[in-house]
Amino acid sequence: MRNLHATLLAAVFAVPAAMATAAENVTSFMLENGLQLVVIEDHRAAAVTHMAWYRVGSADEPPGKSGIAHFLEHLMFKGTDDLEPGEFSRVVRANGGSDNAFTSYDYTGYFQRVAADRLGLMMQMEADRMRDLVLTEEEVAPELQVILEERSQRTDSSPGGLFGEQRRAAMYLNHPYGRSVIGWRHEMEGLTLQDAVDFYDEHYAPNNAIVIVAGDVYPEDALALAKEHYGLIAANPDLKPRVRPAEPPHIAERRVVYEDPRVSTPYVIRSYLAPERNAGDQKTAAALTFLAEILGGSSQTSVLGRSLQFVDPTALFTTAFYSGLSLDHGEFGVLVAPVEGRSLEEAEDDMDRVIAEFMETGVDLEQFERIKMQIRASEIYELDSVQGTARKYGAALTSGLTIEDVQAWPEVLQAVTPEDIMEAAAQVFDRRRAVTGFLLAPEAAEQEVGQ
Amino acid sequence: MIRFISVLGLALFAALPARATVDIVPVTSPGGITAWLVEDHSIPFVSLEIRFRGGASLDLPGKRGATYLMTGLLEEGTGNMDAIAYAQRLEELAASFEFEAYDDAISISAQMLTENRDDAIAHLRGAVVSPSFSEDAIERVRAQVQSIIMGDANDPEDIASATFNQLAWGNHPYGSKREGTAESLAGLTRDDLIAAHQGALALDRVYVGASGDITGEELGLLLDTLLGGLPAEGAPMPDRADYALNGGVSVVDFETPQSVVVFGHQGIFRDDPDYIPAFILNSVVGGSGFASRLMTEVREERGLTYGIGSYLLPLDHGELYLGQFSSDNERVADAIEVVRDQWVDIAENGITQDELEAAKTYLTGAYPLRFDGNGRIANIMVGMQMSDLGTDYIPTRNDKVNAVTLDEIRTIAARLLQPENLHFVVVGKPEGLETTN
After folding, report:
1. Which tens digits make up the pLDDT trace of A392-411?
2. Rounded-to-integer distance, Cα A362 and Cα A84, Å
C-alpha cells in the first residue's frame, strides 16, 4: 500500500494512434506519446477502476538508493503545480471514491475506484501528477518518517519479514531483486527530495506508463478521455531500456539461518531461482505453476501435505509456491514447518525425501486432472472481480508480457502435460541455484551450555 | 492553475452519487428457510453466504476454543470420506467452501459452478450436517490451532488486541481469544466438539445471502437440501458483556523496535438510533483512511506512524469504539498524545461543517461501489439481515446519511468520544510510558 511488484515496448513511437486490438472484453490502444491504454469492460455495476502503472520498480533504483521507488510513490500524493498536498485523495473521496498505490520490484501503480461518470476527473488528476509533481522539504521530511515507520511495521516487527529479506539478499548475487522493495534502513534514512525528483524525472512519463480502465466504460469513451487528459503529455525521449545487472552463473548452494526470539513456529524454506513467464514463451512457467500445486497446493491432497501432514505427521504445515510474474527471474519454493520436537534438519530431510520420491514416481494423473479443472474454473470465478482482472493485466504488462500473453495463459496452462511438469522439475531442482533458510527461535538452554 | 481548480470544483459540487441498483428478492424455501437473493446470470456460478448467529461466544465455561476447533474440523471428513477424500472431491468440483468462527457467528462462504451445483451442494452438506470429527483429524487440527495460539502469543498486534479484550470484557467469552488457551484447547474432547456443532449450527439462527446464477426456486430447493436435518434450536445466546475498563495506559513489555497500540472505550450498538451519526463521525475521526483526523494529525503532519484508524465494533452483546496504530518505541508516547488531543477536541467541539459534508459525499458516493461482485453482495445481504435491516435499506441508506445534521454530530460526539475513558494498550518497549491505574 502506497507500497509492493513489466514490458519493454521499445518501438512505441512508431505505433499509429488508437490501433485497437480487442479480444474478449479487453481492448488496448496506444497513444501517440507512447502511453498504452487498456480497457476492461464490465457493465454489471456503475463503477470504474482507473489505474496508472509505471514500468519502474525497486529493481530500477540506482545503487545506494534502495527504497526510492516506494518513497516516491508516497510523495506522489504530495501535490502538483495544480493540486495542494493531499488534495488528490481529497477530491477522490469527495467524489465517493477511494484511492491508493503500490510499489513492487518491477512496477509502481496508482489507482482510484469511483463511480463511472468520474473517470475523466481521475484521468485529469493522474495525468497532472505524471509530469507536474511539486515537492517541498516540508512535505518530504515527515513522509520519510512514515516510510521508516512502515519498515518498522512490515519488516522489523516481523521475524518472517526480516528472514525473507535476508534470504532474498542471498539469492541474488548481482541483480537488484536482492534488495527489498521497502529498502535497507540505512539507505532509506539518507533519501532526499532530490533523489525522489531525479527518479521521477527519469521514469515517470507517458511512454513508460500503462493506464488501465476497468468497469462500466466503453473503449471509445475511455480512449477519448485518455487522449484529452494524457494525450498532450510529451514523451520522455531519454527513457532508457530496462536492463538490470544480470546474475552470474550460480555455482554454490547458499544457506541462511536466522534466529529471532519472536519465532513461535520454526520452518525450513528453500527457494530455487526459476524461469519466469516470458513474452511468447510461458510453457515452463505454466509447468512450474502445476508443479507448485502438485507439491504443496493443498494440505490434504498435495504431495508434501499427504506425505508429511497425514499418517504419523511430521509437519504442522507444508507448502510450495512459484512466482513467475516477473521481468527478470522467477522463484520456486518449498516450505516445511515441523511438528513440535522435530528439528529443522529433520524437516529438511523430510522435504528432500518427499521431493526425491516425487521425482521417481512422477505426476499422479488424477491429481493432475483435478488441478486442470480448478484452473479452468478459476477463469470463471475471476470474471467476478474486474479489479482483480485489471491488476492481472497491469502486473503482466509491466513484467515484460503482452495482452496476448495474458490471454494465452489459460490455454498454455491447459496444454501442460505431466512430462512437461517433470522436465521443469528436473530443471528447477538444482541446489546450486537455491537458498535454503532456517527460521527459528534461539535455544536459551543451549546458549547457556555454550557459554 | 486557476482553471484546473475551478474544473475540479465543478466536478465536486455537480457530483450526485450513483444509485445502488441491487435488486434483492427475499426467498423462502419449501422447508421454511429464508434467504435474500440477487439474481445475476452473467457469470455461470453462484456465491452463497450462510451465517449462524452465536459463533465462538457460545463456548461454555472451561470449553473455550470448542467452537473454533469444531469449525476447523468441518472440512476434515464426513460419512465414509476422510479429510483427503473430502478435499479431493472438492477439487474435482472446483468449488470453494470457507468456514470461519467469529465472536458472534459462524460463517460459511461458498462459491460453486452452475454446471455441477447439485453435486457441490451435496458435498457441502456433508461438511455442515454430518462432519465425522474423527480422532486423528481432531488431533491434527488441534496441533494446528495450538501453533496459532503460540504464534499469536508472540505477535505484538495479537497481544495488544487480546490484552484490550481481556481488560474490557473479563470473563465473558469476548474477553478471551476464540481459539482458546493452550490449556482449554488441550482439554477439549470429541463430545465437546459434537455439542458445539449441535449448539452452533441450528436453524433458529441461520441467515442466508445468495448472489449469482440461480433462481429463487432453485435456491429454495438448494437450501432445504443443504441445511435440512440441522437441529431446529441451538444453544442459548450469552449474556450481555459488562465493560470493565477505565481510562489509562497498560504497557505490555515486548522486545520489538516498534510499539503496537490498541486504544478505545465503549462504543455504540448497531440498533442504536444514533448509529448512523456515530458512523459518520467515526469516518471523520479515523474511519476513512487518509482524510481522517487521526491519519492527518499522526501520519501526514508528524510522520509518527505508517497507519492509524478507528472503528465502531458493535458486537451482539457488547459495544466498543476502537483504534489501532504502531509507532517506533521512542515516538509512541508522542503519538498517543496526539490521539488524546484529537479525542478532547472532537468531544468538545465536534467536527466542522466542511468535514461533515466531505464525509457525506464520500460515504454516499462509495456506498453503491460496494455491490461489485457475487461474493460481496451475498456478504452484505447477510450482514443486513443480521443487523435487522430490511431490503429497502439499500435505496434509502444514502438519504439517512444525508439527513444527519451538524448538531446531531455534536451530540453524538459528546456522547461517543470519552477522553477520560480512553484506554491505551501498548505492546513493545515504549519510552516514557508506564502502566497507570
Report:
1. 999 999 999 999 999 999 99
2. 61
Residues A16-63: pLDDT tens digits?
A: 333 333 335 899 999 999 999 999 999 988 899 999 999 999 999 999
* Residues of A assigned a catalytic role: 73
Give the closest residue to A301 by CA, choosing from A231, A243, A370: A370
- B interface test, pick of A49, A146, A158, A385 with most B CB neighbours within 10 Å: A146
Cβ distance A133 to A200 under 8 Å? yes
A254 forms bridges with which residues in the sheet?
Answer: A435
User: First vs last Cα of chain A: how many Å apart?
Assistant: 44
Centre a 10 Å sphere on the Cβ of residue A59 and count the other Cβ atoms it contains. 26
Tell me which chain B residues have a C-beta less than 8 angstroms from the C-beta of A77: 290
B47: cell is 456465491
Instruction: Say if residues A118 and B15 touch (Cβ distance below 8 Å).
Output: yes
Distance, CA of B270 to chain centre? 13
Strands A36-41 and A98-103: unpaired
Query: Which of A1, A96, A147 shows the shortest C-beta gap to B361?
Result: A96
d(CA B78, CA B123): 9
Local confidence pLDDT in tens for the 437 residues of chain B: 233 333 333 333 334 445 557 899 999 999 999 999 999 999 999 999 999 999 999 999 999 999 999 999 999 999 889 999 999 999 999 999 999 999 999 999 999 999 999 999 999 999 999 999 999 999 999 999 999 999 999 999 999 999 999 999 999 999 999 999 999 999 999 999 999 999 999 999 999 999 999 999 999 999 999 999 999 999 999 999 999 999 999 999 999 999 999 999 999 999 999 999 999 999 999 998 778 999 999 999 999 999 999 999 999 999 999 999 999 999 999 999 999 999 999 999 999 999 999 999 999 989 988 898 999 999 999 999 999 999 999 999 999 999 999 999 999 999 999 999 999 999 999 999 999 97
CB of A69 closer than 8 Å to CB of A199 = yes
Beta strand B77-78 pairing with B81-82: antiparallel
Give A446's pLDDT tier (boundaries 50, 70, 90): very low
Q: What is the ipTM of this complex?
A: 0.88
C-alpha cell belonging to residue A81: 503545480
Question: Average pLDDT for residues A198-223, to the nearest whole number?
Answer: 97
Residue B175, CB-side half-sphere exposure with 13 Å CA sphere? 16
Contacts of B307 in chain A (CB under 8 A): 1, 153
Distance in angstroms (rounded) separating the CA atoms of residues A261 and A159: 9
Minimal CA–CA distance to B169: which of B312, B252, B57? B57
All three cell numbers of A135: 515537492
- Ordered by where they begin, the domains of chain B are 3-227 (3.30.830.10), 248-428 (3.30.830.10)
Question: Which residues lie closer than 8 Å to B403 by C-beta, 6 or more apart?
Answer: none
Reported as a single tens digit per residue, the pLDDT across A88-118 is 998 999 888 999 999 999 999 999 999 999 9
A94 vs B327, B361, B374: nearest CB: B361
Mean pLDDT of chain B: 93
Instruction: Flag if A377 and B113 touch (Cβ within 8 Å).
Output: yes
Q: DSSP letters of B144-205?
A: HHHHHHHHHHT-HHHHHHHHHHHHHHTTSGGGS-TT--HHHHHH--HHHHHHHHHHHS-GGG
- Among A76, A73, A75, smallest CA distance to A57 is for A73
Q: Chain A contacts of B144, Cβ < 8 Å?
A: 316-317
Q: How many CB atoms lie within 10 A of CB B61?
A: 8
Q: How far apart are CA B195 and CA B187, in angstroms?
A: 14
> Nearest CB to B364: which of A96, A264, A313?
A96
